[in-house]
Design brief:
single chain; 1289 residues; mainly beta; 7-stranded mixed sheet; monoatomic cation channel activity; transmembrane helix
């Protein structure tokens, strides 16, 4: 709150001076120079109201009074113009003050901002009053005259300045914000009583002069008063006055030159400019150089804050705070008073007007016929004499705000006529029930339209009545009996005439109804409540009381006699409206259906009983559900329960619903029972597959009766073994065979569950259980490190791999009595010396620091809900604290020796799996320290390379050595499966574990060729009448220790022995292409299922198609058997080549077969020697050797037998001599010489000629071997000596 500055003269002191009339010689505090007052009448209680008073140009005194709410009093001054304006009526007075108005509603109460009288008829003086929210009324009253003006000002945080100047000659002049606003020269008259002439100078009164001590909505400040009428400019000259209206500055305001006016000659250019713009109706004044003045209504675009103005800028002033806009509305409208939709001349019309404000206002209505009315409350009524459209204008004032509105009305000169003069409606009852004949009579001179309303909500428009006294009729049948108000409504162009008639609709028939005992009965009767109360109801001739409802007559159950016919009549006066015969019967109870058997297989006879409780006049109907007609029994009276028995045979499969229905006239009740002829459930097959995804469903497939005739209805109960309630479902099948179904179920947790399924129907039940695994087993783990040798306090990083399994826990035992576990779901886990990081669902890294030196065996275990798998690190972790490293002891020099030589990932060394692998390490010590030896550590990994060239390795634990003293690694045959391996040797001097050299050997382990074997001698002999047997059972894959024939196939090629050498020279593909297939069979069908194929390289068998041979051929237990008679009789001996094949690798063995018709005898000698003469040396020697055995074992006891044998020996020796000439190697020569010695060994049967032939043969052999590369001198000497042996043996 702003406070007054300067000296203050109290009210009492200045009043005393006034009384002493010290006007000319004022002294002390009242003798003050002119002083600009600072306000006090603020908006809050507790502030002060202050006023400065000047007389004759001198400051007389300064007044202060405290505020109570809005009210404050500065006291009475009857001797001064300040308090008594009659004292200065001739010179007048001037009043100036600042004030603020807070927003207030237009309906708010009037309040006086400042006054010293003149508000009421009993006082003179000036007053400033706030009215209608934003209107300020300024008045000066003296005697019977009053000068009064009103202005509207802005409200809110806006300070306005007002000046009031008055004398009786010049009248009243009011200035707003230093600008002269209006002048009232001519006073108005007022009601005036005897005046007290002088009143208190106060603020905060209502218009009745009562103090306003409540909260304040205005503030008054800097009040000054002079004892002469002055121009408003006198107050605006006060210091800082105009700066309050300076709002902004503009340096480049767009001002047209023709609008600029000069105010340089004015004493106050700023006031002059603002006055000029006010007179021109503008809100903003622009002043530059205290000379150029222009006016505007919109702030310039480049306006800046006024405290940054310079002399060259346009100073933008607000002209004043006067407003003229408002939002008040006046509404006007009319309303007809005739009750018609038109108004005729001379008839009153109601006129209304309102501004929707809670204010006492007067409204002036100006009619276009020249009349007007003033009223404070509408409506007013006015009649126009002429037809047409008439307008009315309404005006009213809210203070100085004038409101206007218009309304219009249409006046019509209408020819009205009169409504129909007579309408009569009458009704008669027809001979049919509830049928009325309605007659309408109309007497009217005009065409009339009539509508008959039948009283039940329906109506009928009749044809027009054109003639006076015309009659129309209408027949109408009502829905129910009762009384109906029939109305005829007739209209002509001038109005309507009505008539009515009460018609009584009656039922002419008697109705029969059956009613359950204990229930009431309702009869539909129309006519309304009063009518229904007036009717009478008789039962069996006796009048009874009745109830009523909406169009109902209600009777209770006690009205009727049970089990008899009751006559009910409803009457109105003497007319019977309706008649009913009502029979009250008891309700039936539910029968009970039972059967001695309800389900059976294939065919069924059932004894069905139906039990009926006491009843009468009842029908029992039994439907057996088998398409046969139902059984019907009429029960006239049953005082006790009665049972009815039926035997029914059901011969076809199906379910049958037996239904017994008991009914009478008022009720029925049923009971049912299912019986079924069904197929027994004999088997239930349940299958499923394990899943590895917890979100995937387990599919359980169910098959009932396994394809045999199946039940058409099955109840399946499935317990999924997870602790939840078993699920039950009912399934049906329209086929003869039950179709398998699959049920899906999603488990919530990993685990192995027992699923139990029960399939049942009414005659059988079968259950099956099986296991299902939800989740994946752990099938492989691996543990590796690249930092297996470290110094103490260094970290060792282990990589663990577990590519399969769900929800896995990784555990590492570091070998130092510590272990650490990590969950697959936790990305990182830590402890004091260990950190685990899960890199992916299959890989994790463990970092561990050992605290003591040593050799540590590290193991890794992967565990989940199903399995656990452990592996160890190869080799061990070495933690050393000796301080000896490669800097102090150079690592040893290492070379890998042996057949492997250098190797790489792309060019590895190759070794067959069936062969031994031997790797020798040549190493030398380079350490200056004394070293007792070298240690060799081996680790082996299987190197996997996919089609994209990506390489990953897995540890081979079977080849893992740690600190071995041997420099040679020996792996026995079949030690490594097929694949590519990296064997890594780490060599370290004994005692210096961190001084190491490492070498890698890449080794490819490949397949070995299969090994075909035909058991027996090189030459096999079969009798033609016997069985040829080839034992292949020992043939094998040398890479396998068990099941060694797996994946082998056998291909046997047959040919005459003479073609054998040529056949042996061919590759497998070549001989296969050159041979004919005889047939094939499968060996070892229950185990290895080896294919056996038989071919002819050259004709070998009698049957060229091979059909009979393959029928006789047997391969049981690896032995090929068939009758030897199938061999061709054209040849004596045959060659057999056996090829074994496995995955593109092949190998071959052979056998010679001799097929003899019988055991060798002398009778066969001729043909045998003929064969030998034409055979190659090996075959010839073998054939002759057989003949020799036969001759030497023959009986030679008689001279005749000896002579015969001697002849045979001679023939054989001659043939051997021929063969001796054809031998081509030392082996053949040795065999030939041995046979000659054998033939000449028995002197009893050797003739002299035979001895000579034998000697010649030895000579041929001696000569022949002398030129043979594989023969020796001893061979030739031996053969030469043989000729003498035959003579002296």
């Amino acid at each position: 709150m702003r406070k007054a500055v300067g000296l203050t003269t109290t009210i009492a002191q200045c009043g005393l001076l006034a009384q002493r009339k010290l006007m000319a010689t004022r002294t002390g505090q009242c003798l003050l120079t002119f002083f600009l007052l600072v306000v006090t009448a603020g908006l809050a209680s507790g502030s002060n109201l202050t006023l400065d008073y000047n007389e004759n140009g001198e400051h007389l005194f300064h007044l202060t009074a405290p505020l109570s709410g809005c009210h404050a009093s500065l006291g009475k001054f009857p001797h001064w113009c300040l308090g008594n304006i009659t004292a200065c009526a001739e010179s007048g007075f001037s009043l100036g003050f600042w004030f603020e108005l807070q927003p207030a509603d237009v309906t708010s109460s009037d309040v006086i901002l400042l006054t010293n009288g003149g508000v009421t008829p009993v006082s003179d003086g000036f007053y400033v009053m706030r009215r209608y929210g934003d209107q300020i009324e300024v008045g000066v009253a003296i005697g019977g005259n009053v000068w009064r003006e009103t202005v509207r000002l802005r409200t809110g945080d806006v300070s306005s300045h007002m000046t009031v100047a008055w004398n009786e000659a010049a009248g009243l002049t009011v200035g707003i914000d230093g600008v002269k606003w209006f002048t009232d020269v001519t006073p108005s008259s007022r009601s005036f009583l005897t005046s007290t002439k002088s009143q208190e100078i106060v603020t905060g009164l209502n218009r009745f002069g009562h103090e306003v001590t409540s909260s304040c909505s205005f503030g008054v400040s800097q009040v000054r008063m002079l004892n002469s009428a002055s121009d408003p400019e006198v107050f605006s000259k006060e210091a800082g006055f105009n700066e309050k209206f300076l709002k902004a500055c503009s340096r480049a305001a767009s001002v047209a030159n023709e609008t600029i006016r000069s105010v340089r000659l004015s004493q106050s250019p700023d006031i002059a400019c603002r006055q000029l713009c006010s007179d021109a109706g503008h809100t903003l004044a622009l002043l530059r150089h205290n000379d150029d003045c222009s006016c505007a209504d919109v702030m310039p675009d480049d306006a800046i804050l006024h405290n940054a103005c310079s002399f060259d800028d346009w100073h933008v002033y607000r002209v004043h705070h006067v407003i003229d806009e408002h939002a008040l509305k006046l509404r006007a409208w009319t309303k007809m008073t005739t009750g018609r939709d038109y108004t005729k001349p001379g008839e009153d019309v109601a006129f209304y007007a309102t501004h929707d404000l809670d204010l006492d206002s007067s409204f002036t209505f100006f009619f276009d016929d020249g009349t007007s009315f003033v009223t404070s409350a509408s409506p007013i009524y006015h009649a126009f004499k002429a037809a047409g459209v008439h307008e009315v204008t309404v005006t009213t004032k809210v203070g100085v705000i004038e409101l206007n509105a218009t309304a219009s009305v249409v006046i019509e000169d209408v020819d009205e006529g009169v409504e129909p003069s007579m309408v009569v409606v009458t009704s008669w009852h027809d001979d049919d029930a509830r049928v009325a004949l309605h007659t309408v009579f109309v007497a009217d001179e005009h065409s009339t339209n009539c509508t008959v309303r039948y009283g039940d909500g329906t109506h009928l428009k009749l044809p027009s009545f054109a003639d006076f006294g015309e009659i129309r009729q209408s027949n109408y049948k009502y829905v129910m009996c009762g009384r109906y108000n029939v109305i005829a409504e007739c209209n002509n162009p001038y109005g309507q005439t009505k008539d009515n008639f009460f018609f009584l609709a009656r039922e002419l028939d008697t109705f029969s109804s059956y009613l359950p005992q204990g229930e009431g009965f309702n009869i539909s009767v129309a006519g309304g409540k009063e009518f229904l109360q007036s009717i009478a109801v008789e039962v069996n001739g006796s009048k009874i009381s009745h109830g009523i409802g909406h169009d109902l007559v209600t009777l209770t159950d006690k009205t009727f006699v049970p089990a008899t016919d009751n006559l009910v009549e409803v009457k109105f006066e003497d007319a019977i409206l309706t008649r009913h015969v009502i029979r009250s019967e008891r309700r039936v109870h539910k029968p009970i259906v039972e059967s001695d058997v309800t389900a059976d297989a294939w065919s069924m006879t059932a004894n069905i009983t139906v039990t009926v409780t006491p009843c009468d006049f009842t029908t029992l109907t039994v439907d057996f559900g088998n398409s046969e007609p139902p059984a019907v029994v009429y029960v006239q009276e049953a005082r006790d329960s009665v049972t009815y028995w039926h035997m029914v045979t059901y011969s076809t499969l199906g379910a049958y619903l037996v239904t017994a229905t008991l009914s009478n006239d008022v009720s029925n009740a049923s009971d049912s029972l299912w019986v079924s002829v069904e197929v027994p459930i004999t088997s239930l097959n349940v299958s499923t597959v394990n899943i590895t995804d917890l979100t995937s469903p387990v599919g359980v497939t169910l098959d009932v009766n396994s394809g045999a005739a199946g039940p058409d209805r099955v109840i399946l109960t499935v317990d999924y073994g997870d602790g939840k309630e078993p699920r039950e479902m009912f399934t049906t099948s329209d086929d003869d065979v039950f179709q398998p179904i699959t049920l899906d179920y999603v488990y919530s947790y990993w685990g192995i569950y027992i699923i139990t399924v029960t399939a049942r129907n009414n005659i059988s039940s079968v259950s099956e259980s099986l296991l299902v695994q939800v989740g994946m087993n752990i099938s492989f783990v691996d543990l590796t490190t690249t930092t297996e040798r470290v110094q103490l306090s260094e970290n060792v990083t282990f990589e663990v791999i577990c590519p399969t399994g769900t929800d896995v826990t990784y555990t590492l035992d570091f070998g130092d009595r510590t272990s650490f576990s990590a969950q697959e779901i936790n990305p990182i886990s830590t402890s004091n010396h260990t950190t685990a990081e899960i890199l992916s669902p299959s890989t994790a890294l463990f970092t561990h620091m050992y605290t003591q030196p040593g050799y540590y065996r590290v193991s890794f275990t992967a565990t989940n809900a199903f399995t656990s798998m452990t592996t160890t690190l190869c080799p061990r972790v070495v933690v050393d604290d000796s301080g000896v490293t490669a800097f102090t002891c150079p690592p040893p020099t290492v070379r890998l020796l042996g057949l492997h030589g250098n190797s790489s990932l792309t060019e590895p060394a190759v070794n067959k799996r069936s062969a031994e692998t031997r790797v020798h390490v040549q190493a030398s010590v380079n350490c200056p320290q004394k070293v007792t030896g070298l240690h060799y550590s081996w680790k082996t990994v299987l190197v996997n390379v996919n089609e994209r060239g990506e390489v990953w390795e897995t540890t081979v634990h079977s080849v893992c050595r740690f600190q071995d003293d041997s420099s040679t690694l020996v792996l026995p045959p079949r030690a490594l499966p097929y694949g590519l391996y990296r064997l890594t040797v780490t060599v370290a001097p004994a005692g210096y574990d961190l001084v190491t050299t490492t070498q890698d050997l890449y080794l490819q382990v490949v397949m070995s060729e299969p090994v075909p074997i035909i058991q027996g001698e090189e030459v096999a002999t079969f009798m033609r009448y016997g069985t040829a047997i080839f034992d292949l059972s020992q043939s094998r894959d040398p890479d396998l220790e068990h099941n060694f024939r797996r994946n082998l196939s056998f291909h046997m090629f047959c040919m005459p022995e003479s073609d054998m050498k040529h056949g042996e020279k061919l590759e497998y593909g070549e001989i296969l292409a050159a041979s004919a297939v005889v047939g094939n069979k499968t060996m070892f069908r229950m185990t290895t299922k080896n294919e056996f194929w038989l071919y002819e390289y050259r004709p070998c068998f009698n049957d060229t198609s091979g059909t009979n041979l393959m029928e006789d051929l047997n391969v049981y237990n690896g032995k090929v058997r068939f009758p030897a008679s199938h061999f061709s009789s054209e040849h004596f001996s045959f060659g057999i080549l056996l090829w074994a094949e496995r995955e593109g690798l092949v190998n071959m063995t052979s056998q010679i077969v001799e097929v003899r018709t019988s055991n060798m005898s002398l009778d066969d000698l001729g043909s045998l020697l003929d064969l030998a003469m034409n055979a190659d040396p090996d075959t010839a020697i073998r054939l002759i050797g057989g003949a020799a055995d036969a001759i030497l074992s023959a009986d030679s006891s008689s001279a005749e037998e000896q002579a015969k044998l001697a002849e045979s020996v001679g023939a054989v020796v001659d043939t051997l001599g021929s063969v001796a000439k054809r031998v081509d190697n030392a082996n053949q020569a040795t065999k030939c010489a041995g046979t000659i010695k054998t033939m000449t060994s028995n002197s009893d049967i050797v003739s002299q000629g035979s001895r000579a032939s034998a000697a010649g043969a030895f000579l041929e052999l001696a000569n022949g071997t002398s030129t043979m590369e594989d023969a020796t001198v001893d061979d030739a000497s031996s053969f030469a000596g043989g000729q003498w042996h035959v003579f002296f043996s």
